[in-house]
Design a protein that fits this description.
Blueprint lengths: L6 H16 L5 H39 L5 H13 L10 H16 L4 H12 L1
Length: 127
């Protein structure tokens, strides 16, 4: 069985082709849509590369916070319910760190060049 290229490498190559070749040969709305498509492919590449580990870590943090394990969507729903009910809040040990880490993990997939994301990563690295 052939293992190369990896799916994320294929997505990166197609995105680069769209951005570097197709955009140069198109104009107006079509060029804009090609850039959107290239960005979407890059986001999916980052999702393939980063999301599995981030979601596993998120589930572990939530299981520790809530005191039991379950599928990630169930833990997230319970967290939301307990926060809305006032049962837990930012004073709950580990909650603020969980929320920050989860947000930063999602930004790493969605908007890794976002300046506030970069600044927050740099600030957290200092602590």
């Amino acid at each position: 069985m052939q293992d190369q290229p990896a799916p994320s490498e294929v997505l990166a190559a197609v995105a680069a082709f769209l951005r570097d070749v197709v955009v140069a040969e198109t104009a107006g709305h079509t060029a804009f849509q090609v850039r959107v498509a290239a960005n979407a492919l890059e986001m999916m590449r980052r999702h393939l590369d980063l999301a599995p580990a981030a979601e596993a870590a998120e589930r572990e943090r939530l299981a520790a916070l809530l005191g039991h394990d379950a599928p990630l969507p169930d833990l997230t729903a319970e967290l939301c319910r307990r926060v809305a009910a006032g049962e837990i809040g930012l004073a709950t040990p580990g909650l603020a760190d969980h929320l920050w880490t989860t947000t930063l993990d999602k930004l790493a997939v969605d908007q890794p060049t976002y300046s506030a994301y970069r600044a927050t990563l740099a600030e957290r690295a200092k602590t």
